[in-house]
Amino acid sequence: MSRLDHMTxxxxxxxxxxxxxxxxxxxATPLFAQSPAVAPAGAAPSRVALVQGESRPAIIFDxxxxxxxxxxxxxxxxxRIIIKPNMVVTTNQLAATHADCIEGMLEYFSSLFKxxxxxxxxxxxxxxxxGYDHYKYVAVADKYKARLVDLDHxxxxxxxxxxxxxxxxxxxLCKMLMDPEAYVVSAAMLKTHDRAVVTLSLKNLxxxxxxxxxxxxxxxxxxxxxxxxxxxxxxxxxxxxxxxxSLARRLRPxxxxxxxxxxxxxxxxxxxTPVDHRVAVASTDWLAADRVGVELMGxxxxxxxxxxxxxxxGMGQADLEKLEILGEKVAQLARKYRPHxxxxxxxxxxxx
Length: 352
What we know:
Strands 1, 2, 3, 4, 5, 8, 9, 10, 11 and 12 form a ten-stranded mixed beta sheet that branches. Strands 6-7 form a two-stranded antiparallel ribbon. The protein has twelve helices and twelve strands. It is of the alpha/beta class and 352 residues long. The chain is globular. The protein has helices spanning 9-15, 56-66, 68-75, 99-110, 128-134, 137-144, 201-209, 240-248, 286-297, 305-312, 330-333, 343-346, and strands at residues 24-26, 46-52, 80-85, 116-121, 147-150, 156-162, 168-174, 182-192, 198-199, 255-265, 273-283, 323-327. It has a single domain (42-350), classed as LarA, N-terminal domain (Rossmann fold). Helices cover 28% and strands 23% of the residues.
């Protein structure tokens, strides 16, 4: 794992190949065929940093540096930064945000923000602390004086989503991730999914915020219950796209960071295989970041239900033609990730 103990912030940029000085590259033509996404009237083009390189922490740092003006505006008046990693399980590194990604982010924020920085998660399969130990987050957090938080021990509020019959179903959401005094960062990955096509910045934040009892774990011997499965909206995932869209009205990242240094294809979000992509994406418009993530993975955005719903509701910019891309061109870095084996069943949400 790449360590940065002796690297300066200038060294981060050098390690990324010196591309931080490059100017914005605007895409000349749209790369998807669908009805235009709704965006706030008169809004300036959303800025998305897209970087490729051979050092994971360096490209994360560089992507953030490219949108620093946007980040500074968002941080104004905030008392703390909360980094929400993607740690769906605590025992498979490919399925979790890498410590090197966290280190690149903490190195960046260390010179920009003097308030408290937290790393907060609620893993699906067990206590977040097990993942913090297994993925070596503890050493990184100690180095930058960040605080590790298990969201299962934090206060919750009750919201309602729908079940398979589209009837209201209560679930717990962590209040910390909705704190107006916090700058919430979704440190997600480029991963395929077994129910929602892809999992990117929004899904990472929303599902991680859904509560479970301390001591809950998958399998026998579990203590308590988890509400996370409720977001699926039924055994056949009848409500998953609507539920993710609905919860996005309360839970949206202030900053989206997508780590595609090594993505996951196939049977994600846990059992997929690696894709050495060497890319990083960052934007203060989370939907714009996820839109670029979908394109980089080679999926049809119009078939990713929850994101298209959010676009139609004007939660961000999802029209590639209206994005200001800082760095590399999306089309040149796009790959074709192998989808989950159940992809045809997942696409049935579109059928009349």
